[in-house]
Design goal:
The protein has about 90 residues and is mainly α. It is built from five helices and no strands.
């Protein structure tokens, strides 16, 4: 799944009014992890992640940020995408 597709799905889950809160959170967490694996697949492998430069990672996330900017729910999407790093709660999900 491409990053634009993942971001679109995150937006759909956020706006969904028919799914339970618990299921929405589970879906958002899974999509966040999927996005991270797509953007920075090296993080799963310690040998290759050591060779990854911070500037390269930043360039990859800029492309993600530019895609997110297209959505009205951009602040929520960014929160979802930050979740694997922050482990924040999804208090705002209804």
């Amino acid at each position: 799944m491409s990053v634009p597709q993942i971001i679109h799905q995150i937006d759909e889950v956020i706006r969904d009014t028919h799914t339970s809160r618990e299921k929405k959170i589970e879906n958002l967490q899974n999509l966040a992890i999927t996005c991270w694996r797509e953007v920075v697949p090296e993080y799963g492998n310690p040998e290759t992640s050591q060779n990854l430069k911070t500037t390269e990672v930043q360039k990859r996330w800029v492309r993600v940020h530019n895609e997110v900017e297209k959505y009205e729910t951009k602040s929520q999407i960014l929160y979802v995408l930050d979740w694997p790093a922050s482990n924040g709660d999804f208090y705002w999900v209804k």
